[in-house]
Design a protein that fits this description.
- With 397 residues, this protein is of the alpha+beta class.
- Helices cover 27% and strands 30% of the residues.
- It has 13 helices and 20 strands.
- The strands form three sheets. Strands 1, 4, 13, 14, 15, 16, 17, 18, 19 and 20 form a ten-stranded antiparallel sheet that branches.
- A hairpin with an 8-residue loop joins β14 and β15.
- α7 packs antiparallel against α8.
- The radius of gyration is 22 Å and the shape is globular.
Amino acid sequence: MTTTLYKLDNCIQHYQWGSPTAFSEMFGLSNEAQQPQAEIWMGAHPKGSSQLSGSPLKLSELIDQSPKSVLGDYTYQRFGELPYLFKVLAAAKPLSIQVHPNRHKAQAGYRVENQRGIALDAANRNYKDANHKPELVYALTPYTAMNGFRPIEQILLLFKQAAINALQAERDALLANPTATGLKAFFAAVMNLKGAHKQQVLNQLKQGHLQAAQGPLAQAAHRLIERFRDEYPDDIGLLSPLLLNVVELAPGEAMFLHAETPHAYVQGVALEIMANSDNVLRAGLTPKYIDVDELIANTRFVPIPPDTLKLASYQQDNKRCYPVPVDDFGFEVLTVDPQGHQQYLRGAEILFCIEGEVSICAGQQLLTLSAGESAFVCESAKVYRYQGRGTLARAFN
């Protein structure tokens, strides 16, 4: 009998912004050393492939052994690999402000940096692979983030309320040209602030004018700036809440992050699914390398209306579906009951148990998942059945 269903042992990434308690409290995962646990990686990425539970094989090795059988013809022909990486993310501190390149620019940038002989793990490496990195985030707890440029009139208002006179000329230029071109010039001016001019801007931001301003926009921006200042007192990213939309996701809400869109995760626990890439161009709130020219070349300067940021979902039988505008991945949340349900496969899937206890059956194989556990289903299974009491997150393509 060919095995098509596997329980996964997943890699935990211990980044400094992670929470030492969230995964323990929510999923009972051990953390005796009280390290910051930032991300659980479910997938076949070379920086942290899942292990097949009870086997010496990694998921990446299973796929390499029989890619057509594991992934299915469509996925193998279209992508040549498992095209997504599924994560649980626990942010106790803000992550860096980031932009991810589109596929064309990722391919070109990856090729150029290879030609220049820049090591993949070099601090000044921008392109770790040749793929784009669109993302979906699904909140498990209240989740704070920033996503996309604010409408230009909001940016102008917030910079005016913050009384940053050292940027008056740049603000006047944006006021005179409130277009993508004007926003690009304004953003470039902010990102290129240095020395005494940068310190003057940050000192004026610190004077508290925003705190005294009226209205929810200014108050929400001020709260984030104060939170960021605790970690990064001299970082240009302190200006980001004036430029970017602030998003508060309730549990069960989701948002999609397009390539070339500046964003940052601030606090909370969420599921995240993305194209199988690790390409990151940083724009602040980090001690790491920032390549301003490459950042600007990979950013779309199109404001996103705040009321469009949350992803529209719909209910279909026992599934809550979250449609996305890419074919690298799909995402659904399944309500599981004792009667059970059946799912047909087009490609390989990863199932993560959010809560409860769920049994999964593929052919003659059966395994049980508790909260925090996950499974991989090969496309060659063709169909699987799940039942119990709980909630499953389904990653597929």
